[in-house]
Amino acid sequence: MDQLTAMRIFRRVVESGGFSAAADALDISHTVVSRQVRQLEEMLGAQLLNRTTRRFSLTEVGQLYYQRCIDIIDQVEDATRIVSHHQARPAGVLRINAPMVFGTLEVPNWLPQFMQAYPELKVDLVCNDRFVDLISEEFDVGLRITRSLPDSTLVAKRLATSEMALVASPDYLKKHGMPREPADLLKHNYLAYSLALQTTELVFVGPDGAEQKVGLSGNVQANTGLIVCAAARAGMGMTASATFVVHEDLKRGDLVEVLPEYRLQSRDLYVLYPQNHHLSPKVRAFVNFLAEYYATPRWEY
Asked: Quick one: which of 14, 90, 144, 236 could link to 281 by a disulfide (CB 3.0–4.6 Å)?
């Protein structure tokens, strides 16, 4: 016996004034109604109704139980309505994790538009460059800029590609000269991003498709790309940066691409989220929004 179903039937019997009326209202047989109420009484070990051939009345305990049935059934139906309402449109708090530089430079470009589209959402954005376990730290989604993703149970959707560019300021190049090939970089000051997989080694692919590895050295390294790019703009040296960071500098001429005929391995932008058969509307809305936003090429220079 489904107790909640039996409680609903018992309540309908009381409110309809009889078993037959309840059966008609519920579109089930009189036998089913009678059996459900009887099984409910057997489970409870108490008589809920005094029955006669023509009418019934609630026992004292039946009256108490009926009142609690009303409370419980109404709460269950209210909870169901809340979930249905929540599942119908994006609402609640969306917790997002993103790398520091991406969160600082790129997220402000589209976050206002996203929030305007979904006014019932609240966003909790956490930016850092350490490894974050989205599930254990209770994030709904994560954004990653990387060459490759480790194996995991997370769903990963690639949104865009950010090329890598070796850059320096015009003043620096005027003083120290423009490199003509990767080997020339040994004479230059390299500003390193300390969290990169290879902090002071770059792998170039030349016009002929051949790879060249160059070990570099310099007097500045930092755990944020913002610092090394600012140092490059100030003429302190050159650095390799994702174009989502430096494309505006390149457009303005504050930075110049070095060895443009040689390619560095690009970085892909992913949105990650836990696998779930019932993907929440807020996560689905976020993923779809970003997929549409980044369908238009970004970071050109």
From this structure: 90
Report which of 264, 105, 125 is spatially closest to residue 196, judged by C-alpha positions. Answer: 264
Which own/partner pairs from 222-228 qualify as long-range (CB within 8 Å, at least 24 positions apart)? 222/191, 222/192, 222/193, 222/194, 223/129, 223/193, 223/194, 223/195, 224/100, 224/101, 224/129, 224/193, 225/101, 225/193, 226/100, 226/101, 226/104, 226/105, 228/191, 228/192, 228/193
The two three-digit tokens of residue 18, written as one number: 């009889």
Token pair 């039946």: residue:
62
Please state, as a whole number, how many other Cβ atoms lie within 10 Å of the Cβ of residue 214.
18
In DSSP notation, 167-200 reads EE-HHHHHHH---SSGGGGGGS-BEEETTSSSSS
Q: Among residues 248, 223, 225, 239, which one has the least CA distance to residue 101?
A: 225
Q: pTM value?
A: 0.70
Q: Answer positive or negative: Cα dihedral of 181, 186, 188, 193.
A: positive
> 107 CB contacts (<8 Å, ≥6 apart)?
98, 125, 143
**Which residues, at least 6 apart from 146, have a Cβ–Cβ distance to it below 8 Å?**
267, 268, 270
Residue 155 makes CB contacts below 8 A (sequence gap 6+) with 272, 273, 274, 275
User: Average per-residue pLDDT in the chain?
Assistant: 91
Task: Show Cβ contacts of residue 184 under 8 Å, excluding neighbours closer than 6 positions.
Answer: 177
Our CA angle for 48, 53, 57, nearest 5°, is 30
CA–CA separation, 7 vs 80, rounded Å? 17
What integer pLDDT is reported at residue 80 of this predicted model? 77
Nearest CA to 114 out of 291, 272, 261 is that of 291
Distance linking the first and last C-alpha atoms of the chain: 69
87 or 135, greater pLDDT: 135
